[in-house]
Request: fold
Amino acid sequence: MLYDAGPLGKMYIMGTATSLSQWQSNVVPGDRDVQTDLSNGKHPINPTGGWRAGAA
Reply:
């Protein structure tokens, strides 16, 4: 998505995520049969015009 960051200029902000999950059929009492977790997440920010010191 393209955002106008005011004095920093226009920037693209993106995101990615990966997850892990498991399923088991022979559950021990007190445990769950399905478990899911976020394993990795990123939010890269890319300027459209490059970084310039003192840019207005």
Notes: The beta strands are 2-4, 10-13, 16-23, 34-42, 45-47.
